[in-house]
Amino acid sequence: MDRIAGIINLDHEQDLLDELTYFRCGAAVPFGGRYRMIDFAISNMANSRIESIAVFARRKYRSLMDHLEQGKAWDLDRRSGGLFILPPDWNDPTDISRGDLQHFHNNMDFINRARADYILVSGSQNICNINFQDVLEEHKATNADVTVIYKDVDELYPEHRLAHKLSIDEQNRVLDIHNDQKNTKVYMDMYLVEKNYMNELIEASIAHGHSHFFLEGIKGRLQEMNVHAYEYKGTHALVNSIESYFRNSRKLLDREEHDGLFKEDSPILTKVKNEAPAKYLQDSDVKNTLVANGCLIHGHVEDSILFRGVKIGKGAVVKNSIIMQRCEVEDNAVLENVIIDKDCKITGGRTFIGAPEKPYVLAKRKSM
């Protein structure tokens, strides 16, 4: 059976979530009530029987390392293979690589030693539930050099402006990768390539002075390569701004959207924390809300997402909001269209109201 090794490449991802990425990289941002953004990429790989996964991290990765630990939550704390967090470590004085090619070059040991025939590279900003074994089967059937994954979106949102789009022919061969604002075939920052061929591409890209492996090593050589496009048809969200984070998070309040992402046969896994179930006190009133373990609710909560350990005081009102771990909203406070990062306290009687298209955001460990 052909094996796949995984690389989660965070090197070129920009931290565009404003206050939420002041102290952490985007991959470590909490999402969906109990998860982090990177959980989806790792879970997809683990569910696809990928047993060796490397994370290329360049900056603000302390929170990420604390969350991932040794990969136990994904059954990756093993002797053979496992999870490898690879921050910058440029010790080769002869190295001439630049950009994310530094990570590929300086971590060739991971690629070469992995018991795998293919390498699957993914980012962390595309939230989905995908089986990469299906991608591999199509890759082999089409005799592709590289297979890239895309989503044909029903509607283009502002976050798609920054995403690359694909032009493909009737056989799903990629003709061009561009930034056409009207094209709905959104490249999901995921691609599969045979390991030995990837080594050749890395060496050639470095020799030509390139700095971005995908854009220059693959996109720049489309005419001489067979690049196949695999269409992902499941639930998908691209999160690369506060606005896209807020809108796509709140989509999870829709049962169909939620169940399309969190499937019983391919679960999204995360770091385990043993906490008591949420407690709803006598006067609480909770409607259409995701509530994680350890919450204590005494007030009114509607159309919101509460992460682990959130406390909502008596008479407090929370609407259309995202409240992260261990936050406390004291009595009679009012929150609407807000995102409160972890370990914040909203004092009694205070009111914070944002707009649905521009939520008010409070960075972590603040008291207001």
Output the CATH topology of the largest domain: Spore Coat Polysaccharide Biosynthesis Protein SpsA, Chain A
Output the radius of gyration: 21 Å
Category from helices, strands and their pairing? alpha/beta
> Averaged pLDDT, please?
95
Domain Nucleotidyl transferase: 20-153
EC number: 2.7.7.27
Keywords: Glycogen biosynthesis, Nucleotidyltransferase, Transferase
GO molecular function: glucose-1-phosphate adenylyltransferase activity
Give an overview in words:
The chain has 368 residues and is an alpha/beta fold. It has two domains: 4-261, Spore Coat Polysaccharide Biosynthesis Protein SpsA, Chain A (Alpha-Beta Complex), CATH 3.90.550.10; 279-362, UDP N-Acetylglucosamine Acyltransferase, domain 1. The protein contains nine helices and 28 strands. It has helices spanning 37-47, 62-68, 101-106, 108-113, 132-141, 195-207, 213-218, 242-250, 255-261, and strands at residues 4-9, 30-31, 35-36, 52-56, 82-86, 118-122, 126-128, 146-152, 165-168, 174-178, 185-194, 227-231, 236-238, 279-280, 285-287, 290-291, 296-297, 300-302, 305-306, 311-312, 317-319, 322-323, 328-329, 334-336, 338-340, 345-346, 351-353, 360-362. The strands form seven sheets. A seven-stranded mixed beta sheet has the order 5-4-1-6-11-8-12. It has a five-stranded parallel beta sheet with strand order 14-17-20-23-26, with no helix packed on it. Strands 15-18-21-24-27 form a five-stranded parallel beta sheet, with no helix packed on it. Strand 2 and strand 3 (35-36) form a beta hairpin. The longest helix has 13 residues, at 195-207. The chain starts with a strand and ends in a 6-residue tail after the last strand. 45% of the residues are buried. Residues 280-350 form the Glucose-1-phosphate adenylyltransferase/Bifunctional protein GlmU-like C-terminal hexapeptide domain. It is an enzyme of class 2 (transferase). Residues 20-153 form the Nucleotidyl transferase domain. Keywords: Glycogen biosynthesis, Nucleotidyltransferase, Transferase. Its EC number is 2.7.7.27.
